[in-house]
Every structure is written in structure tokens, then in C-alpha cells.
Write a structure and sequence with these properties.
The complex is a heterodimer of chains A (about 110) and B (about 110).
Chain A (H helix, E strand, L loop, with lengths): L4 E3 L2 E4 L5 E6 L6 E7 L5 E8 L2 E4 L8 E4 L6 E5 L8 E8 L7 E2 L3 E5 L1
Parallel strand pairs in A: 2-11
Antiparallel strand pairs in A: 1-3, 3-8, 4-5, 4-9, 5-6, 7-8, 9-10, 9-11
Chain B lengths: L3 E2 L4 E5 L4 E7 L4 E9 L6 E7 L4 E4 L2 E6 L4 E6 L8 E9 L5 E3 L3 E6 L1
Parallel strand pairs in B: 2-11
Antiparallel strand pairs in B: 1-3, 3-8, 4-5, 4-9, 6-7, 7-8, 9-10, 9-11
Amino acid sequence: NAGVMQNPRHLVRRRGQEARLRCSPMKGHSHVYWYRQLPEEGLKFMVYLQKENIIDESGMPKERFSAEFPKEGPSILRIQQVVRGDSAAYFCASSGRDYYEQFFGPGTRLTVL
Amino acid sequence: DQQVKQNSPSLSVQEGRISILNCDYTNSMFDYFLWYKKYPAEGPTFLISISSIKDKNEDGRFTVFLNKSAKHLSLHIVPSQPGDSAVYFCAASEINAGKSTFGDGTTLTVKP
């Protein structure tokens, strides 16, 4: 499967724990985007990364959230000290140089108890 | 301030008829517009797009119309099929920005 891979598909955490969401872009893609979807809402942009660089993090909450896209390995979205309001579906997308054409992964559904 | 709006949360049409999904935007810097289709528990799937230099783009049963002066775009599906039942998201991008701004989606139900 050459599509965008995300894991885990479902993640349950208790308040105060850490959540790590992984995204492997499509083969040949070096641009990764993270979006969050709250219930009954659209996808909200969080962060745009290229290999080893954060290009745009204007949608990322200032505290507890961080993202990386290392030279080797998947992109990681990390949420520290999770709260109930972090419960959402987190989608990763990737693109080549034509960033308009973004391909989405299946998402990780985070539930905070 | 929501820059991309889909004012109809849901739409129901009969199989074989036309489905028209609407989207309005406020940011005049948007230069590329996309429609995505999403099934439950899956990621959005790209459907069709249009550049701001065009006013129409057609791909099979799907046509997107762009009215820049009204800051409005629409997706026409004809004829509609039950398999088209899904949530449709309108999205917009600014030149060189990378990120896409999404509307809240319209749930389309096509009845057999």
C-alpha cells in the first residue's frame, strides 16, 4: 500500500498522559500536514512540515503540542498531558512539491478518558 | 472567523437527480479550491479541484463551478448515485501557503 499510513488508528489515553501519533507519508512525498477534526466540525490545520523543518505551525496550540518530521522515519505529533478536549480525529496528509494535491491518511482517533 | 463556509449541513436527493453542494469563502487570497469526499472512519479523499483562473472544471459526473466575484463555489454531481452518500468538504488554499482551510462539511444522502 503506497498510501499515507497513520498509526495507531485508535488511541485511548487518560488525562495527563502523553499521546504520540505517527504518520508515514506516501512514497516520494516530503511534505506532511497535520489536521484535527472535532465532532461535527471540519478539519482544522495544525502544522505543516518538510523533512527536519517546521514550515507553518500557526494552527498548533502553543502548549502541550509538538510535531516533528525527522530525516528518517515517520512524522510524529506529540500531545503532552492530554485533556478531554484533545479527543478528536487527527489526520495526516502528504504531498510532493505540488502542495495543493494533499493525500490523506485514515486518521487516528484519540479518546481521552 | 471561518474563512470557508458550507452553510448546508445536510442534503438529501433522489438517485439519478442532480446534487448541488455549495461553499462560500471570505479570503480573497485563496487561489485554489478543492472538494473532498469522506466516509465514516476514513480520511478525506480528493474528488475534484479548480484553480482561481478558471470558472469550471469537469471530471465525469462531477463538475465544480467557481464564481470569484461572489466568492462562491459549487459541486454538481449528476446523476447522483447511492454510493455518493458521504460527507463532502470544500477546502481552499493560498498560493505558497501549503495548508488548506476546510469548511465544516455537507452530508449528502442519495436515496435509491
